Amino acid sequence: MTSLRAKLRYRFDNLMSRGLISLIGLLSLVTLIFVIAMTIVVIATSSYPVSGESLGEMLWFSLMHALDPGTVVGAEGNTYRAIMLVTTFGGLVFLAGLIGIVSGAFDAKVQSLQKGRSKVLESGHTLILGWNSRIYTLIREISVANLSEGRSTIVVLAPGDKVENEDAIRERVGKIGKTNVVVRSGDPMSLSDLEIANHSGARSVIILADDETTNPDLVTMKTALALVNNPNRKDKKYHIVAEIKQPENLERAQLVSSSEVKWILAGDVMSRVMVQTSRQSGLSQIFLDLLDFDGDEIYFTKKPELVGKTYLEAQHHFSNSSLIGVRLDGMVELNPAGKTKLTDGHELIVIAPDDSDIQTSDVFKIETKAIVPKRKGAAAKERILILGQNENLQTIVSELSEYVATGSSATILSVSDAPALKAGPKLKLDFITGDPTSRSVLDQVDVPGYDHIMVLADRELASEEADALTLVTLLQLRAIAKDAGKSFNIVTEMLDDKNRELAESTEADDFIVSDQLIGLMMAQISENPALAEVFGYLFSSSGSELYLRPAEWYVKPGEMVDMHTLIEAASKRGETAVGYRKIVLESSQQNNYGVALNPEKVRRFKLEAGDKVIVLAVD
């Protein structure tokens, strides 16, 4: 049978575990009982210095002695002083206990807030679930996109310490204008943790792949499932952008929700971009210009005044934007035929400085005398050198097979063993085992004899170590180029954007920063889901793509022209002109490496031999 003492101890333990209010109430009750007891002692000893005083007054003065140690100084009579001294000491004990309880509760509350477990009350925010190195690019770009919208909020829900995550964002992102970043600590796959981030109030959700797990795609899919199948989900459709790493998981991921989730196959996109950029110096800068929120971006617009006009005519009527395609019934087509008639149902896809500044004009003039007859260079065999390997190598080889002329070859130099690769019939593969960071090894493969060079990051290593090896390889290539007296078309894959500045120089190299590009693309799609189809079209090997083609194919060298003339010349070749590149500025970072994307239509300029015209075209 349970003893009385055990029962009292059990009840006391339960009372103590109920929290701050219960503890304060218990301490107050004990203090009151103690004060009453001391008052009874005063009455029993008849030691109160004022005769005939009421019981209430005696209780009040006993309470004051308990709460204020200085009150005992004014007591009269030795017995009364002794009793009040005991009362004061007791009061000190109880007061110290009260201060300790309140201080402990305050510290516990601060620690709780630092853990990031309080619910987010924001709405209309961008919610980022998960954490990897792309988060810094996402926060930076989304904050830039929101500059024109006043105050905005980005909520991050990720595992780990909230304070450490906030410090990392503050250090890597810097000032972000009026955007407020709210960090919460939790598991994005947990339904209760998603409630903390107010997922139902978010206008868009971005799910980042977990680089710390062995199968990040399963984590991403489960996170998306926790959103779309959440019992507390919102009535409207979610706008979710999620990152998938393995191509074989894409079909499984699309089972979650094809209408609410835009899946980004990061490795596949990066491989396509690297292949396209490796064959055309300067293309990476154009991609960066299109993907970031500084300068020009891709927008959708409707212009009733252009209904009934052809696609070519509509190109001329945009004064500060470049028309690159149309969307009809959700289907995107870039660089349609120039004779395509625009209807009420067509949305126009344009490159513009801002969606609020897309203007049309009827004022233009075409310098027809400067346009040259249609010409095209013959496809030539290519030699490609790939230094290093990672999980994207097969996709890169497959993409190269779609572009190169018959008889082309690709040599892979890597310290790892030769992987099983499959190339198309036009491309011959060779594999050499060696260290790409070694000058002697590079000299043996005759680097100057290759048309294009790609340097791949070793993704099995930490990003800092992988980028360090990439930098050493790049330095060796530049030294070889200097000794050979020629420039190389080099595409360098780097994992961390902060290392890009170390790699940049006055050389006309192209740099693909993987985390940055994927982060930029996800940020763009989070702001406008329709861009997923545009980017999928743009970075695919089928359909129209961006090319930098010799200016002499379009206009006479040395002639003063404007973009209207280039648009007309490109249209004769079934292409859409969107800008140009001056070769004399290809090493000038201040001049965007010579790239002029979406220049003002009426601004006149002169293109010389070696300059390029930026077009959307089918190869």
Kindly summarize this structure in a few lines.
The chain contains 19 helices and 22 strands. The chain has 619 residues and is of the alpha/beta class. The chain starts with a helix and ends with a strand.
Keywords:
single chain, 619 residues, alpha/beta, Helix Hairpins, Rossmann fold, 6-stranded parallel beta sheet, 22 strands
Structure explained in plain terms:
The chain has 619 residues and is an alpha/beta fold. Among the domains are: 4-114, Helix Hairpins; 126-259, Rossmann fold, CATH 3.40.50.720; 383-515, Rossmann fold (3-Layer(aba) Sandwich). 38% of the residues lie in helices and 18% in strands. It contains 19 helices and 22 strands. The strands form 5 sheets. The chain has a 6-stranded parallel sheet. The termini are far apart. 40% of the residues are buried. The mean pLDDT is 85.
Q: Could you give the count of β-strands?
A: 22
CATH topology of the domain at 126-259: Rossmann fold
Strand numbers in spatial order across the main sheet: 3-2-1-4-5-6
Strand fraction equals 15-25%
CATH architecture label name of the domain at 126-259: 3-Layer(aba) Sandwich
CATH superfamily of the domain at 126-259: NAD(P)-binding Rossmann-like Domain
Which of globular, elongated, flat, extended, rod-shaped describes the shape? elongated
- The low-confidence parts are none
Q: What is the first-to-last residue Cα distance?
A: 91 Å
**Number of helical elements:** 19
Q: Helical amount among residues, as a percent range?
A: 25-40%
Provide the gyration radius in Å: 35 Å
Specify the oligomeric state.
single chain
CATH class of the domain at 126-259: Alpha Beta
Judged by helices, strands and strand pairing, the structural class is alpha/beta
* Arithmetic mean pLDDT: 85
